[in-house]
């Protein structure tokens, strides 16, 4: 089971956080939880992060975290 602290937060680099901080904080569980569907849409489509698409394995971790009920 994926958790935010152990599995999801480490997916986001400092540069990803800085790029999105004007909208929400990728290092905040509450912010990521509130935007999880939009984040998944973007990473699955390959449009986030800005400098290149995540590999499928990273998208799968994020998708699994959602499917597992978004544990902290």
Describe it:
The protein starts with a helix and ends in a 5-residue tail after the last helix. It has one domain (4-67). The radius of gyration is 11 Å and the shape is globular. It has 72 residues and is mainly alpha-helical. Helix 4 (36-45) runs antiparallel to helix 5. It has helices at 4-8, 14-20, 29-34, 36-45, 56-67. The relative contact order is 0.22.
Task: Please write out the topology.
Blueprint: H1 4-8, H2 14-20, H3 29-34, H4 36-45, H5 56-67
Helix pairs in contact: 4-5
Shape: globular
Largest sheet features:
none
Count the beta strands. Answer: 0
Rounded to the nearest angstrom, the distance between the terminal CA atoms is 11 Å
The gyration radius over C-alpha positions equals: 11 Å
Q: List unreliable stretches of 5+ residues.
A: none
Spell out the helices and strands N to C.
HHHHH
- Strand residue content: under 5%
Helix percentage range: 55-70%
Whole-number mean pLDDT: 97
Helix tally?
5
Return the domain count. Answer: 1
Protein structure class: mainly alpha
Name a few traits of the molecule:
72 residues; single chain; 0% strand; globular; mainly alpha
Question: How do you describe this structure in short?
Answer:
By secondary structure, this protein is mainly α. It contains five helices and no strands. It has one domain (4-67).
């Amino acid at each position: 089971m994926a958790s935010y602290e152990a599995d999801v937060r480490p997916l986001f680099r400092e540069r990803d956080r800085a790029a999105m901080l004007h909208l929400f904080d990728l290092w905040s569980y509450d912010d990521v939880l509130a935007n999880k569907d939009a984040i998944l849409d973007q990473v699955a489509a390959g449009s986030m992060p800005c400098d290149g698409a995540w590999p499928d394995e990273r998208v799968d971790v994020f998708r699994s975290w959602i499917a597992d009920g978004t544990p902290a």
